[in-house]
Amino acid sequence: MKIDLIKIPGIANHHQTVWQIRVLEIDGRNLVLPTLADWSKKHGADYKKIMKTLMMIGQVDRIRDEKKIKKSKNPKHHDVYEIRADKGSARLMFFYCRKTQSSIICTNTYWKTKSSEREQDNAFELCDRLKNIYEQNP
Amino acid sequence: MLSNSATVSKISMSKIRNNVVVGSNPAESLPDDLAALFTAAKPTGSEVLSQLESAAAELGKNPKFLADYAKGLIVEDILRAMEDSGITRNALATKIGKSRQYVSKVLDEERRANFTIDSLAEFSTALDLQLCLRMVPASEHMLFIRKLPTPVAIESFEQFPDERADPVMIPDCNQFESRNTIPFTPEDNYEPSRLSA
Questions:
Q1: B23–A3: do the CB atoms touch at under 8 Å?
Q2: HSE (CB half, 13 Å, CA atoms) of A94?
């Protein structure tokens, strides 16, 4: 298993003065960029909101507006968050990296539907598992 | 509309990589369900990358997006200053001589209350902030050197060392690295030599 961190096209260095923003890639595949590209084509409004928050999140210690960022309330999850397209359906899950102490690592996405609580929890769960794999890797 | 041969040829995976493999352990493998998930994921080839580059470039030319983005950052600056100084919306409204409803409306991006330079100046003086407004050529960047609170105000970061609270030092403009150690790359058109020209 090879774990790598890759950049998000469109998120420039000047958007990352406090935190680096990266996507978790395992064995050459990731669960974020293809979806983001898809949203940019099919769901422009949601894509813009996600990108806006991505551009902001690397420049501040933390985002205080809960419409943009939410932390998982499930006690089983440890410090995993979602970037929300407010009033939209796109969600991007991430965690703050304890290894480098300077990175935000995006792991996966989901598209919110009406009965989404379980989907949201599943997405947080996946983020939490990927976070554990990342942190346990030598 | 979003891809052309010139764009695609410029974009390669090396551009988005950190050039640092975080971990590599051939003996370890992903759990089956995760392995299936990653195997099923669409490869991040030049088609995906050029789509993302093009979409982001369009955002950079969209005044409404840029206004939303700038407003979002300003709202975060105000919220942070309010939190740091323990000032409430009521108190802030009193300080700037406006109603609490006005302050709430301004802080709620969705309600589309617009900032003016005058109102920004009012907020910044009331919160003891510096107001920095500039318009610069696209080839230049404005950089804000930010001092973070100690500890970083996220509960899970309490164990982080205090060094994050140190102000950023710029040792040498020609070897500038941002706070998070990402070097400026030629793609960013950052040309320190211009500074001394």
A1: yes
A2: 27
